[in-house]
Amino acid sequence: MVKIGINGFGRIGRLVTRAAASGGKVEVVAINDPFIDLEYMVYMFKYDSTHGVWKLGEVKADGGKLVIGNMHITVFHEKDPANIKWGDAGADYVVESTGVFTTIEKASAHLKGGAKRVVISAPSADAPMFVMGVNHEKYDSSMKVVSTVHAITATQKTVDGPSGKLWRDGRGASQNIIPASTGAAKAVGKVVPELNGKLTGMAFRVPTPNVSVVDLTVRLEKPAKYDDIKKVIKAAAEGPMKGILGYTEDQVVSTDFNGDTRSSIFDAGAGIALNDHFVKLVSWYDNEFGYSHRVCDLVLHMFSKE
Questions:
Q1: What is the pTM of this model?
Q2: Which CATH number covers residue 248?
Q3: Which residues participate in the annotated binding site for NAD(+)?
Q4: Do residue 36 and residue 124 come from a single domain?
Q5: 11-23 and 38-46 helices cross at what angle (nearest 10)?
Q6: Nearest one of 32, 142, 44, 29 to 97, comparing CA atoms
Q7: Residue 196's pLDDT is what?
Q8: Model confidence over 213-227: pLDDT tens digits?
Q9: Do 77 and 125 fall into the same domain?
Q10: Sequence ranges of the binding site
Q11: At what angle do helices 289-304 and 11-23 cross, to 10 degrees?
């Protein structure tokens, strides 16, 4: 059993905790959040508008700890990561999910409190970046701080409001389709160096609370029939990438993937081919729950290399 601490009890922090509590291989022993008190943690964990009420065991505050089923979690309220006593709580790994401490230097502050390794749940300017099923085998046990990429989307407004330089982002999320930039294409280049400079992308923010879709348009160097592409993806989904990659020929829509623990579910019926060199591929993912399970998977992979 790997013992982890979580810094930041926001969307990702709470869902990584849910993933750990439902998976049984990762134990959350400590949570730090300077802005959320213990009673509010109980409420926020138990009730989730997107993923529903937590039903796998009791959630309560007991003796100053957050109790979720069999997990008795020490709670800290430190603003400076260097002051969090992870070691005293028994946390060997820390999931840094505040979105604030995203460089190696800033995230390394967790090591001062007794943590052995840190996983940053956001794009990092300098930390090695890993995606399970893609490049996780390149992880080396000498690495103390790593990142597993995730896009931040909790900044949208419920109604029109002020928004720094990105004026469009200030428009009401439930009323609009909003074009936005995305760091995903740049992240792909970091994780798969062979694609660096060959890929770009943008996003449309749409009025749904969860689930995203990738619409990938590709010009192929070698010709390939769309049916052959489907066969290769299906074989991977049923073989080496089972549990991470999915494949469906059903007539699905976004809500069908809410709560899906896989990272990418290829929609065979939605893709199209102009010819054997030019195809559009469509794949769905729960950008919260699938990602949170991969964070736990990465921690387990790192633990296996100790």
A1: 0.91
A2: 3.30.360.10
A3: 11-12, 33, 121, 287
A4: yes
A5: 70
A6: 32
A7: 87
A8: 999 999 999 999 999
A9: yes
A10: 11-12, 33, 121, 287
A11: 60
